[in-house]
Amino acid sequence: MLRRHRRTLRCLIAAGTAATALATATACSGTASSRGANGPLVFGISADATQLLPWTATAVQSQQVLGQVYSSLLDLDSELVPVDGLAELPAVSKDGLSYTFTLKSGVTFTDGSALDSTDVKYSIDKILSPGTKAVARTSLSAVQRVTAPDARHVVIKLRAPDASLLTALTGVNTAILPSGTSLDRLKSKPVGSGPYAFENRTPNQSITLVRNADYFRGKPGLGSLEFRVIQDDASMVSALRSGTVDMAIFDNSVTAKSAKSADVTVHTVDQLDYHALQLRADSSTFRNKDVRLAVQCAIDREQVVKTAALGQGDVAGPITSPAYASDPAARPCPARDLNAAKKHLADAGKPKGFTFTAIVPQGLYSSAANEAQNIQAQLADAGITMKIETLDSSAYVDRWLAGTFDAAIALNGAGADPATTYTRYFTSGGNFNKVAGYHSASLDKLFTEGIATTDPAARKAVYQKISRELEDQAAWIWLYTGRSYIAANTRVNGFQPIADADLQSLWETKVA
Amino acid sequence: MSALVEQPVAPAAPVRREPVLRALVRNRSGLIGTVLTLIVVATAVAGLAGALPYDPSAQDVAAALQSPSGGHWFGTDQFGRDVFSRVASGLGSSLLVAGVSVAVSGTLGVVLGILAGYYGGVMDRVIGVLTNVLFAFPSLLLALALAATLDRSRQTVSVAIAVVYLPIFVRVARGPVLTLRSADYVTAATAIGQRRLATLFTHVLPNMRSIIVVQVTLTLSWAVLTEASLSFLGFGTPPPAASLGVMVYDARTLSSIAPWLLAGPGIALIVFVIGLNMFGAGLRDVLDPRSGGRR
Amino acid sequence: MKSTLRHLTGHPVTRRLGEAVLTLLGVSVLTFLLLRVLPGDQITASYGIDAGDLTGSQLAQLRAYYGLDKPLAEQFLSWLGGVFTGNLGYSSNAGQSVADMTAHALPVTLELAVLAIVLALVIGIPGGLIAASRPGALRDGVAQSASLLVLSAPVFLTGTVLAGVLADSFGWNPNGETFAPLTEDLPLNLQQMLLPALVLGVSIASPIMQTTRTAILDIRSEDFIRTARAKGVPERALHVRHVLRNALIPIVTMSGLQFGFLLGGAVVVEQIFSLPGIGRQVLLGMGQKEYSVVQSTVLVIAVMFVLVNLLTDLVYRMVDPRVWSR
């Protein structure tokens, strides 16, 4: 009661400050929220979730929303190790070619229909079919055949052993969809088996989900959950501070800090995605390994973190998945060494330095331009001139995919499994090898070995070797991993912030 | 920013009692405008010439995020760069972009306007439709689209802004030409055998001088704002060159811990535009007695 | 017959209409071409870097799906044909037809523009009258300086600062709420419109004030006013009956022009205050490379602009019949 009173007063003052003819006409209703204990919890997102079909959802906002609506066969725990989801962890045959999954009993879709092995087989078959254009098709490419011996069992047969299969079956890109509903209908009205059911969407404004009381893990904490689109960071902060939005994720520490107040707490979580200066070793500029090493030695990564991320990040090597992480000290010139850089330049026959152009995205992530400017200044000390070519996001993606650049400032996605993250870049047949610009016979061999090795310790050793070759060759210049900031109103209870700002614990979250 | 169009002003009779400059400094807004503009332009020129306390893109991480002091008048940013030097260099960049774009749109627009007004007929219709097309296209969106289309550089931003302001000059020039065409001395010049085109530029153009000068100063101020808005939306001058709009945009996220990052470029931008506007208003008062300025 | 035709084509109204159609066609062609020159297309815009995993035939399918495989002329004509039959295209990102999207977005921008222009007139006309009442005096100087100050502050600066201060100091942030359409929640809707309309209104109050001031001073020096004054018409009546009425012509023209610009020029304000208006629709469409969204929405904006101009012209001609002969 008292609180509401105070809000009304504030509101009147505010209206008075903005005194105009209109102020008198605006009654102070509405603003103060009248949201109850059951929600809705309002989650601010910076862009609309436009891709409602989970298999082709690439934008992070779409994945966040769909993660609440759909479930997958398996999930990841807070250490990003696969655990049971719709199915228990599978029984694997001795030759590593046959995985048998047992589905949990009594799982239903939110339209009431049962989720059984038919839906699982349908989903994986559809994902593998080129016509669907599913993004997980490449990571499931080892799958030969899916069979459903009975309603609760699914058997996945592989062509060759694939140690990354379990990770590949987690996440919305391999969500299980109802086989009885056409994809076109699901595109506009998703039907899943997640903790919340899709209610409605107002494009570019909001998406509302409601509790799925039959969720297979238990009764979800929120009566309803609204994802609200607020594009501007500053507006998002205002909305959090005034309590009109309950939760939001930022990737900028200062913005996150400015959202902090008596009513808003901010959790910091690590990201797996890595910031890098990609060099294309098959371009004429960077063909010489010494040229690449000169760049490697001329950059103080701590300084990049300090200036571009305001100190909020960790210097990292190529592999960032917790179970396989590279040691950032195991690289040539782990600390900046200008003399070594100059020596490499001399060895390359360019004692006076050289000039190259880096493409820099704009609008994809906030730190790109700052990283570019700091690296430019640092390289100048070694006599290396880096020109900055700023491109808007789609122009950047075009150039990046075509591989028509010498160097690129990039923030690349990394998953829980290093094979999924790097096979497509650094194997000679990889879809993105043109982008990476580097491959070798030894890397090809190591990647093949890595995917076939299921023993965790042996597997880790293989990826350490891969990591080492990438660093020694300075295939790219790996810089750091950033952090995400999850801001939440104090009335939000039970949310577990975990790495990669995964929202899976939203199902247990409650609001006071 | 909404673009504005001035009412076409009837040409002033070519009699003037005192030199423009002296009249300008006797006019209150003219004086303030002249002083502000001179200060800003001097700073901008210093920025362009590199005559600054610090190199605007030199980084000194040890001195990052310092508040304003004797050493750094406007403080430093997260890279330890001197904000004053960056503001000055940003002003230079604004001035350059605005200057080039207004020069291009002014020259092209006035020529088209004179041709349309003088020849009339088909020429007038065609130019009229082209002008209308550019007018009906939302101006900021047009600039955005143009800036996103071309390679990102100062030149392309200038061209984008020039296209947006072209139609204003066409209209401003066309109106008076219609009136002047039938003026006695023009008819006389044509009658004594001067070629029409020559007449246009020897007799008609000089008589529109005052209108064009006023329009140029006003358009300069809009161009400065448009450049800043474009940069703010991410389509302006690329880094590491300093740009006031980009500085404001970047400063917004840091404003809670380093408000001086917002204050420096924000105030510089406002002072620049106020100066140009007051200068323009003063010029209008002096050159065009009808506008009813201080007499 | 021929002479009637000539008479008809030569008639100012027909000519204006013809010009309007040509203008709209020009705008459409320009939009279409600009979009095709922009780097990237809807496939890369929606798949991002994952487009690199698509095979050649998958890409071809997607191109066909988005209609990108046809020759440019065909793409343009098929869009234009759609427009004539009322089909403005479909947005796969919004899951709606562009006509539906526009039906929601246009009222928002219209409301914003109307509120802003009303505010601008409320501030601008009295301001201009005060300034003109004693040119060169202190009040004139104050009014002029104030108008210059607001004219010079960029909307993106005043908008963010104002919204930030109100939210931080008073916890008043109506624009953080889901947008409330006019017909559903009037009080909240007005709160959400207040700041953006204020920022825009103040910024266009300045030219309206200047126009008012100039027009009043102009007319006051005209012969018929001097005559009326000499005849002993009371000063107040003189002002209202003669000066103000005649000054309305340029004020109407300027307001119409500003209103036209507001329809498409509110992009920045809509962006800062999260208003789902038509400017934001274009901007989002550009980002997502949804060609038909951008083409159709820009056309709608241009139609509004042309309509407002025609209306202004009409009012202008009604007030001042001499214009017909020009």
Automatic annotation (TrEMBL), chain B:
Q: Which UniProt keywords apply?
A: Cell membrane, Membrane, Transmembrane, Transmembrane helix, Transport
List membrane-spanning regions: 31-52, 95-119, 126-150, 156-173, 211-237, 257-280
Highest taxon of the source?
Bacteria
The name under which this protein is listed is Diguanylate cyclase
According to the UniProt record, one GO cellular component term is:
plasma membrane
Cited InterPro entries? BP-dependent_transpt_permease (IPR050366), MetI-like (IPR000515), MetI-like_sf (IPR035906)
Q: What are the subcellular locations of this protein?
A: Cell membrane
UniProtKB/TrEMBL annotation, chain C:
Report keywords, A-Z.
Cell membrane, Membrane, Transmembrane, Transmembrane helix, Transport
Q: Indicate whether Nucleotide-binding appears among the record's keywords.
A: no
A Pfam family of the record is BPD_transp_1
- Residue ranges spanning the membrane: these are 20-38, 112-133, 145-170, 190-209, 247-273, 293-316
What topology does the record note for this protein and the membrane?
Multi-pass membrane protein
Q: Name one GO biological process term.
A: transmembrane transport
Recorded GO cellular component terms are: plasma membrane
| Stored InterPro entries | BPD_transp_1_N, MetI-like, MetI-like_sf
Positions of the ABC transmembrane type-1 domain: 106-312
Compartment annotation: Cell membrane
Which CDD domains does the UniProt entry name for this protein?
Answer: TM_PBP2
Transmembrane helix keyword on record: yes
- Highest taxon, organism lineage: Bacteria
Q: Which family does it belong to?
A: Belongs to the binding-protein-dependent transport system permease family.
Q: What is this protein called?
A: Glutathione ABC transporter permease GsiC
